[in-house]
Design goal:
The chain has 13 helices and five strands. It is mainly alpha-helical. The chain has a three-stranded mixed beta sheet, sandwiched between helices.
């Protein structure tokens, strides 16, 4: 390796990996602008539920309460994000947050919920992505790596093939750990928000169990943008076990979802009773094994388009 390349590597490492690197995150104003424009575009292209839909009304009620009650006034003054809450009519099982405040849920994921606690857990998770500026941080990290990569490849006179390979590696393996870190952080803050609101964090664990297909294992984190949902469910369950407080029973949603309809047809009720394992007993209080088959069958049905959040 020539002295020139060594010098470039040293300088690049100092600029883009040290604690004194430039803050390349988009400003709060930029995040607000991007969020507004992206939200408007989504509403033009997607079928968004009307304001009068009971699911939208409930989501906005809880979202507004969470923002007003659990985000400190000083934080809201420093980062005046404009939190909005909308639902897209689609079978896709997902939810997402845009920079600056817009949050969207798909009806697909709402149809997997049976309790307010499950819905609120995902909502707290998405709010955390915005308030902790995860998109901005991800953007900055990716930009730093690309700038550093450009300097190095230019110094060594890389040809087009090398640029292509480097781009694939950079956009894959190097980017993903940051995303998983943010998802884990959103799980933690979402848990805290649900707990503060007097709800049961096990609702979040229920959702992750559903996203994992109702079973642990068989999930590769190496090329995944999200942590293993089974591990996320386990982390929440372990945290609940360490709590010194007793959480209330999960509350049923004030509107009927596909999950609730299917459970009614199966004769198992509409409200989950929490048991020791990751399975939930949907209704009558019988043992876990008695109801596991119903739960697994339902999970298999609703996870055909399993994406996670």
């Amino acid at each position: 390796m020539t002295m020139r390349i060594v010098c470039v590597l040293i300088v690049t490492a100092g600029l883009f990996t040290s604690g004194h690197a430039f803050d390349l995150r988009p400003s709060v104003a930029d995040q607000l602008k991007i969020g507004r424009e992206a939200s408007a575009q989504i509403k033009k292209e997607e079928k968004v539920l009307p304001d009068t839909d009971p699911r939208v009304i409930w989501m906005r009620k809880i979202g507004k309460e969470y923002v007003e009650k659990y985000i400190p006034a000083a934080e809201k003054k420093k980062r005046p994000f404009e939190y909005t809450f909308d639902i897209i009519d689609s079978k896709e099982i997902n939810a997402f947050a845009l920079p600056g405040g817009p949050i969207f849920f798909y009806t697909g994921i709402i149809d997997t919920f049976t309790t307010e606690d499950q819905f609120a857990g995902v909502l707290g998770h998405e709010i955390t992505h915005i308030r902790n500026q995860h998109w901005a941080s991800q953007y900055a990290d990716n930009l730093k790596r690309r700038l550093g990569l450009a300097v190095i490849l230019t110094a060594i006179g890389a040809n087009d093939d090398l640029w292509t390979v480097a781009d694939v590696v950079d956009s894959g393996l190097f980017l993903l750990p940051y995303s998983r870190k943010h998802e884990t952080e959103a799980d933690k803050f979402g848990y805290d928000m649900v707990k503060q609101d007097g709800r049961n964090p096990m609702g979040m664990a229920n959702v992750f169990t559903m996203l994992s297909g109702g079973k642990g294992g068989g999930y590769s984190e190496i090329l995944a943008t999200h942590p293993d949902p089974a591990k996320r469910a386990k982390a929440i369950e372990d945290r609940v076990k360490k709590e010194t407080v007793t959480f209330p029973a999960q509350r049923p949603l004030p509107f009927e979802t596909l999950a609730m309809k299917n459970l009614k047809k199966a004769g198992t009720g509409t409200q989950p009773k929490l048991l020791s394992g990751t399975h939930v007993c949907w209704g009558c209080g019988h043992d876990d094994g008695h109801k596991a088959s119903v739960f697994d069958a339902f999970v298999a049905q609703i996870t055909e388009k399993k994406l996670g959040y």
